[in-house]
Design brief:
- The chain is α/β, with parallel strands linked by helices.
- It is globular.
- It has 11 helices and 10 strands.
- The mean pLDDT is about 90.
- The chain has a single domain (about 10-305), classed as pyruvate-formate lyase- activating enzyme (Alpha-Beta Horseshoe), CATH 3.80.30.
- Strand 4, helix 3 (about 95-110) and strand 5 (about 115-120) form a beta-alpha-beta unit.
- It has an 8-stranded mixed sheet. A two-stranded antiparallel ribbon has the order 2-3.
- About 40% of the residues are buried.
- The protein has helices at about 45-60, 70-75, 95-110, 125-130, 130-140, 155-160, 165-180, 195-210, 230-235, 245-255, 280-295, and strands at about 20, 25, 40-45, 85-90, 115-120, 140-150, 180-190, 215-220, 265, 275-280.
């Protein structure tokens, strides 16, 4: 079966990156809110990856396009500065370690100007990696992992099919930071619905404080058709948060989290309001901004639904 190139789903901070698929899908396909739910993980052949790296190197150095290479490769490389690579798809860290190392070594050899390689990484696959393996990945410039915590509420984690406990995510974060890899964590506003909101925000703030990540990105729940959570909503078994209550979750998570030096952002397109800053110095300013919008309750201050996206 030939490898099917995935659509580009990326963190906002990877907008300048070139995208290199190692997999299609996610190793944990049980999250009830996610479009990957029930999908089959596909692992790309390492020789196919090397061929794409060769094509990228030829294009970036000499502007030559090969006729047998997908035009998508050249589209994502157009205007690329050669510094950042993002490995797709939902969890490239699941790629078998010897071949992952082989691919990264080849990438560094053919494109030596690369400064940073990033990927999504599930807590499960981080925990499966030894400390030495993670340090070797860091040596090969794999220097940032994006991991979904989603919520610190263990009961809710089980309910949404995340497949890990909050303690396991905390341990994954410890291993990543010990290896010298930047750790970026995402949380989902509204994932507990109306009924689970209070426990979700306070448990999430508590777990984020324990992880003490380099970055936290907040997303707002978007119901994806055909997922179990969407079907629960259709049966009136799940009540999504209204926009301002979702914004209040954001406020409470920021207010109750304490970090050494964390950059917090809600710049993702799913959010009703974008805030960002280093919480060690900008926390009070961000909270004042959120409180001002919450007090006004003016819908025109929020991103309209038609502009929200995944």
């Amino acid at each position: 079966m030939s490898f099917r190139r995935p659509d580009i789903i990326r963190p906002p901070s990877e907008w300048k990156s070139c995208f290199l698929p190692l997999t299609n899908g996610c190793s944990n396909n049980t999250c009830t809110f996610c479009g990957y739910y029930g999908s089959k993980l596909q692992i790309r052949d390492v020789d196919d990856i090397k061929s794409e790296i060769d094509a990228l190197a030829l294009f970036t150095r000499r502007g030559i396009r090969l006729p047998d290479v997908s035009q998508v490769v050249y589209s994502v490389a157009q205007g690329w500065d050669g510094k950042r690579i993002f490995l797709q798809d939902g969890d490239a860290l699941v790629y078998p370690f010897p071949k992952l190392r082989e691919a990264l070594q080849y990438l560094n050899e053919k494109l030596p100007g690369i400064e940073r390689i990033g990927t999504y990484a599930t807590p499960q696959d981080i925990l499966r990696r030894s400390s030495d393996e993670l340090k070797e990945l860091r040596r090969l410039k794999m220097s940032i992992f994006y991991t979904g915590l989603e919520t610190g509420d263990d009961e809710l984690l089980q309910k949404i099919g995340k497949g890990v406990s909050s303690d396991q995510v905390i341990e994954a974060g410890r291993k990543v930071k010990e290896a010298g890899i930047t750790f970026s964590v995402t949380v989902i506003l509204g994932i507990g619905g109306v009924e689970g909101s209070k426990k979700h925000v306070f448990e999430t703030a508590k777990v984020l404080t324990k992880i003490d990540p380099d970055y936290v990105g907040a997303l707002t729940l978007t119901l994806v058709p055909s997922t179990p959570l969407y079907e629960q909503w259709e049966r009136n078994e799940f009540r999504p948060l209204p926009p301002f209550q979702s914004l209040d979750e954001l406020r409470l998570i920021i207010e109750n989290s304490n970090f050494t030096d964390c950059f917090f952002s809600s710049m993702h397109a799913s959010n009703y309001l974008s805030v960002r800053g280093r919480l060690s110095q900008d926390k009070e300013k961000i909270l004042r901004e959120l409180e001002k919008v919450l007090a006004a309750r003016n819908p025109s201050l929020l991103r309209p639904e038609f502009l929200r996206g995944l």
